[in-house]
């Protein structure tokens, strides 16, 4: 019998910094990243997440260099990045700076020319006509795995245990499309070599869950995934954020979903909070006005959950950073918001309680969000001007003098 997951809610007070090695430095290597660790740490980073580090498949690849999520060998290292010894050295340097390192796990599918497909085609999903393919979308560079084969479970768990001797945990790609029972067994096995391993699930959009169920494919909800994982993506309400930024929905609809989330998920739930990741438009593309973008950024630190940043966000990069080709992000000092990120990190870590209840309201006329973190001892209020308009703000706090923790006023 698998023991239910016990989550460490102190993870709500942490900062994750996401690194795509190919595009993070001109060299695109483990060794080159080492030279940037002090700067990343100074942002307040606690956990560095490396996008997939494994060899990339060449058959049916996308773009000039292929997608890192089309993996050809789960147990190998992408030679573009270096060697396994280089990875170990990098992780040692990350640890020396008081940070932890997690790597991407892509267990729903492999490349068409993967070691696993060559050696064990019986581990792969077949269409009704007997051909190999995928279930969930137009992912032409990958083939789906079939977890009804329990030998596949053994192979995948052995692989996770191998990496758990080196790194501190895993960000699991489209985790909802892999059986939760598998993840429970994996967590149990990894705990024997790394009991403090971090498990972050990429949950899926609500429309993805609907499509899968209508198609007869298994898919897990957020509540299901919390049986195995510490943290999850906020994709259960991402559609509301997207509709707002596209001008198709109201700000209050998105904020109300955040309130709903706090009511229906397990009491010790942990969500990652961000305004951009490697699959979304850049924050500065969504909010080209810097002051508006900074209000949204501050809100991600204030919310109940783990703040997640994507490499380049601190320089307000606007262009989507392709996964399929070399495209090093720009580092223009004129757009550097690192000092603000460091300040927000300090506020989050020293003032905001991880055991608080979250609530918020949004005024659709003024574009102002008022949010609260409340526990039995304290109430913290945040006011965020999301649209750079003006208006009155009503706060549910006693009359008195208060300090603006960002400006010091």
Key words describing this protein structure:
3-stranded antiparallel β-sheet; single chain; 14 helices; alpha/beta; globular; 409 residues
Describe this structure in words.
With 409 residues, this protein is of the alpha/beta class. It is 31% helix and 14% strand. It is built from 14 helices and 13 strands. The protein has helices at 21-24, 30-34, 37-42, 84-96, 115-119, 150-164, 180-191, 206-215, 222-225, 238-245, 251-264, 283-286, 290-302, 338-350, and strands at residues 15-19, 47-50, 100-105, 109-111, 142-144, 169-172, 198-201, 231-232, 272-273, 306-310, 357-363, 368-374, 379-385. α13 (290-302) packs parallel to α14 (338-350). The longest helix is centred in the middle third of the chain and has 15 residues, at 150-164.
Write the layout of secondary structure elements.
Elements: E1 15-19, H1 21-24, H2 30-34, H3 37-42, E2 47-50, H4 84-96, E3 100-105, E4 109-111, H5 115-119, E5 142-144, H6 150-164, E6 169-172, H7 180-191, E7 198-201, H8 206-215, H9 222-225, E8 231-232, H10 238-245, H11 251-264, E9 272-273, H12 283-286, H13 290-302, E10 306-310, H14 338-350, E11 357-363, E12 368-374, E13 379-385
Parallel strand pairs: 1-2, 1-10, 2-3, 3-6, 6-7, 7-8, 9-10
Antiparallel strand pairs: 4-5, 11-12, 12-13
How many strands in all?
Answer: 13
End-to-end gap: 55 Å
What proportion of the residues is helical, as a percent range?
25-40%
Shape category: globular
Going by helix content, strand content and strand pairing, the class is: alpha/beta
Q: Please state roughly what percent of the residues sit in beta strands, choosing from under 5%, 5-15%, 15-25%, 25-35%, 35-45% or over 45%.
A: 5-15%
Q: What's the Cα radius of gyration? A: 21 Å
Strand order of the largest sheet: 8-7-6-3-2-1-10-9
Low-confidence stretches: none
Order of helices and strands: EHHHEHEEHEHEHEHHEHHEHHEHEEE
Number of helices: 14
**What is the makeup of the main sheet?**
8 strands, parallel
Mean pLDDT reading: 95
